[in-house]
């Protein structure tokens, strides 16, 4: 029957190894010529199959013996485009790792041929020969001895068998011609088909099927193109040992109520490429366990969770619908899903994406190098991203707590400042200088906030000596108003720091220690000696806000540092 569309043809044979006809189908018409349908069709069944299955693969055969075609102007035409599909009769045996054909069962093949231009001559070793007709030949060869051919037989309508003779085909130029050859049988079986201890015979012999296109001129056949199949096992009738081949794969396990399969298992698919391939949904009521023992691992190292968070942030989460022609092949009922795009994940996390080969859809479209995603990898990326987010959250919580503490301290400082502003007058602070030269006691009006100290407090005054080469001339009366002048006695003071919290009646210098509103006024002795210079440093801090280890950044806010340098200037 002629007139089938290209898409219908490709759906029937979606396991093509070569899709060469896709290059020119748009510019050619498809001519479906089921040659002598009553004779060659298989029990009235067309080549169309309801379901696609694993098919024989084909390779070029004896290319050195191919002959070229020429048109009426003796111009060489392109090589014949030639493709073969086995429609039925061959089943792949996982145990034998080969296709098996039962001798009593017929098989069927479909050949697609396209000739570019209009051939008139075939070039032979004797020169140009006019083409009279084209023929298709089908025969078998032995793998171990390719020169020995195996005859092919064909069942007749009365179920009798006759030798299959070459079939004449018409090949119009610039068109695709489809030829279906059915009801074919091998005339003999392969050798050493018997099992040995339930396993394939190591001396198993194989056939290969050859389909060739020939040009005929003056009763001579000239090969134009030919393909040869992969190895085939041809068996006689179905003996019991072959009917239970599954027993070799499925065996009773050592544990009660267990079954063991040595091979790959496919559900809703006949070409599993993993230990278990399920085309459809799967329900798991228990847990899915993964090996994770450290004793079975090496090169263990921490991952960068910051990088995992970055990758997860860049991954795009989308909603999508699977194409109906793809969903039907994969057994997907709910086509609407939420997920990720494999091509985008491959750019961020290449190890989570893998190519699984070509996938054919129901409409004949083939998706080459189909990509699949390992969602376990994505899950572990999410675990690392969550850990990084926990770190960031903890850091933010600590920072917020610190800011709240500073906020409370600032509020207290504001209250202190408001109280200080209510003081009408300043406190008198006496600065006593123990120098050899005349010095002054200067009274300065100023509001002072001094660190509140307990009786057992030890001051942290630092004292150091720094020799100088030249003493500058300084007249302190030019800086501050001089009220009274005292002379410092020369003596060796004890290097001792004392805290005077009350007025000491026995103090030699009768220095007065006055209590302020927010602290105390403290006076320390300063050691003075000949040829002795000293530096004097102390810090005035707001109570509860600063200490000796407070960050210098807060100088002027919570504390003020004072540095004094004392030196002798004597005649």
Give a short summary of the structure.
This protein is α+β, with helices and mostly antiparallel strands. It is built from eight helices and 35 strands. It has three domains: 6-238, Sandwich (Immunoglobulin-like); 305-422, Arc Repressor Mutant, subunit A (Orthogonal Bundle), CATH 1.10.10; 424-571, no CATH class.
Describe this structure in words.
The longest helix has 46 residues. The strands form twelve sheets. Strands 1, 4, 7, 12, 13 and 15 form a six-stranded mixed β-sheet that branches. Strands 2, 10, 11, 14, 16 and 17 form a six-stranded antiparallel β-sheet that branches. The chain is elongated, with a radius of gyration of 51 Å. The chain has 571 residues and is an alpha+beta fold. It has three domains: 233 residues, Immunoglobulin-like (Sandwich), CATH 2.60.40; 118 residues, Arc Repressor Mutant, subunit A (Orthogonal Bundle), CATH 1.10.10; 148 residues, no CATH class. Strand 19 and strand 20 form a beta hairpin.
List keywords for this structure.
571 residues, alpha+beta, Immunoglobulin-like, Arc Repressor Mutant, subunit A, 3 domains, 8 helices, 35 strands, elongated, disordered N terminus
Distance between the termini: 135 Å
* Low-confidence runs: 1-53, 423-469, 480-519
Number of domains: 3
From the coordinates shown, what is the CATH architecture of the largest domain?
A: Sandwich
Radius of gyration: 51 Å
Fraction of residues in helices?
10-25%
The CATH class of the largest domain is identified as Mainly Beta
CATH overall fold name of the largest domain: Immunoglobulin-like
Share of β-strand residues = 25-35%
Tell me the total number of β-strands: 35
Shape: elongated
Main location: membrane
Pfam families: MRF_C2 (PF13888), MYRF_ICA (PF13887), NDT80_PhoG (PF05224), Peptidase_S74 (PF13884)
Family: Belongs to the MRF family.
Subcellular location: Membrane
């Amino acid at each position: 029957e002629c007139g089938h569309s290209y898409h219908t043809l490709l759906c029937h044979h979606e396991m093509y190894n070569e899709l060469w006809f896709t290059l020119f189908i748009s510019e050619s018409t498809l001519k479906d010529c089921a040659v002598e349908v009553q004779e060659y069709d298989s029990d009235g069944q067309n080549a169309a199959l309801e379901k696609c299955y694993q098919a024989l693969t084909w390779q070029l055969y004896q290319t050195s013996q191919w002959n070229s075609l020429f048109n009426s102007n003796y111009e060489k035409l392109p090589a014949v485009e030639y493709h073969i599909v086995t429609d039925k009769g061959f089943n792949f045996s996982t145990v034998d790792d080969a296709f098996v054909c039962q001798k009593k069962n017929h098989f069927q093949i479909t050949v697609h041929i396209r000739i570019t231009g209009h051939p008139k001559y075939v070039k032979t070793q004797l020169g140009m020969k006019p083409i009279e007709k084209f023929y298709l030949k089908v025969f078998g060869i032995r793998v171990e001895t390719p020169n020995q051919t195996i005859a092919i037989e064909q069942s007749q309508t009365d179920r009798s068998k006759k030798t299959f003779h070459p079939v004449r085909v018409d090949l119009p130029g610039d068109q695709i011609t489809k030829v279906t050859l059915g009801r074919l049988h091998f005339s003999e079986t392969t050798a050493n088909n018997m099992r040995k201890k339930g396993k394939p015979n190591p001396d198993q012999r194989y056939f290969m099927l050859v389909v060739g296109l020939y040009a005929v001129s003056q009763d001579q056949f000239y090969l134009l193109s030919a393909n040869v199949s992969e190895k085939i096992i041809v068996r006689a009738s179905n003996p019991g040992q072959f009917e239970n081949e599954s027993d070799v794969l499925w065996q009773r396990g050592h544990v009660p109520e267990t079954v063991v399969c040595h091979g790959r298992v496919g559900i809703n698919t006949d070409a599993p490429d993993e230990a278990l391939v399920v085309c459809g949904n799967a329900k798991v009521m228990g847990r899915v366990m993964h090996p994770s023992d450290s004793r079975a691992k090496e090169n263990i190292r921490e991952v960068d969770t910051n990088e995992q968070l970055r990758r997860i942030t860049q991954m795009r989460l989308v909603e999508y619908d699977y194409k109906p022609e793809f969903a039907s092949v994969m057994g997907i009922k709910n086509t609407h899903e939420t997920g990720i795009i494999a091509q985008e994940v491959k750019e961020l996390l290449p190890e989570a994406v893998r190519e699984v080969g070509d996938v054919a859809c129901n409409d004949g479209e083939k998706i080459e190098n189909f990509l699949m995603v390992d969602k376990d990898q994505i899950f572990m990326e999410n675990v690392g991203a969550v850990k990084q987010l926990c770190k960031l959250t903890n850091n933010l919580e600590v920072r917020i707590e610190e800011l709240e503490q500073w906020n409370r301290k600032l509020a207290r400082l504001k209250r202190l400042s408001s109280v200080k502003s209510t003081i009408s007058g300043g406190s008198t602070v006496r600065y006593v200088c123990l120098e050899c030269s005349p010095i002054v006691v200067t009274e300065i009006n100023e509001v002072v906030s001094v660190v509140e100290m307990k009786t057992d407090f030890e001051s942290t005054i630092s004292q150091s000596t720094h020799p100088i080469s030249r003493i500058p001339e300084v007249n302190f009366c030019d800086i501050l108003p001089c009220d009274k002048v005292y002379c410092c006695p020369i003596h060796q003071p004890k290097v001792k720091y004392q805290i005077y919290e009350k007025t000491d009646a026995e103090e030699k210098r009768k220095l007065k220690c006055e209590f302020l509103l927010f602290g105390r006024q403290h006076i320390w002795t300063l050691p003075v000696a000949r040829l002795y210079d000293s530096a004097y440093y102390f810090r005035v801090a707001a109570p509860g806000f600063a200490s000796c280890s407070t960050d210098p950044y807060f100088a002027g806010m919570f504390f003020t540092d004072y540095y004094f340098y004392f030196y002798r200037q004597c005649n």
